[in-house]
Amino acid sequence: MKKGFTLIELLIVVIVVAILATFAVPQYLKVVEKTKGSKATHNGTLITQAEKMHRAEMDLYLDVANDGFAASTLNDYVEMVEIDADDDWTYDVTGSGAAVFTLTMVRVDGPNATETITVDQDGVVGGTWAP
């Protein structure tokens, strides 16, 4: 009596695994994009909090460009090193002054590249991000 699998049995197993993978991989990629969006939202919350603390103390908001957060005055209020190290998103604060600011987060790469999340001084969220 022979032991082992026939070629047909092995092919059926490979086909079943391939079919399962066609469903699993797109779902995995969606979860990864949603997670990256959550990371951007969290970082946006930190930047917004730091801007509000700076305004409470100095009576104005700051313009800060991408990769400049750790070197900015905002780093005195909230740790910004991880935000500068983020390779998935760029973060820019514009429209500074005593009254308003807009934080724009732009996705760098992936299936949602160039999509944005915006947040203003009142916490109103907008943009084109749709993972």
Description:
With 131 residues, this protein is an alpha+beta fold. It has one domain (7-127). The protein is built from 2 helices and 4 strands. It has helices at residues 7-58, 81-84, and strands at residues 89-94, 102-107, 116-120, 125-127. It has a 4-stranded antiparallel β-sheet, with helices on one face.
Instruction: Provide the β-strand percentage band.
Output: 15-25%
Helix content: 40-55%
Query: Low-confidence parts, pLDDT < 50 over ≥5 residues?
Result: none
The total strand number stands at 4
Shape: elongated
Which helices and strands, and how do they pair?
Blueprint: H1 7-58, H2 81-84, E1 89-94, E2 102-107, E3 116-120, E4 125-127
Antiparallel strand pairs: 1-2, 2-3, 3-4
List keywords for this structure.
131 residues; alpha+beta; 2 helices
Summarize the structure.
This protein has 131 residues and is of the alpha+beta class. It has helices at 7-58, 81-84, and strands spanning 89-94, 102-107, 116-120, 125-127.
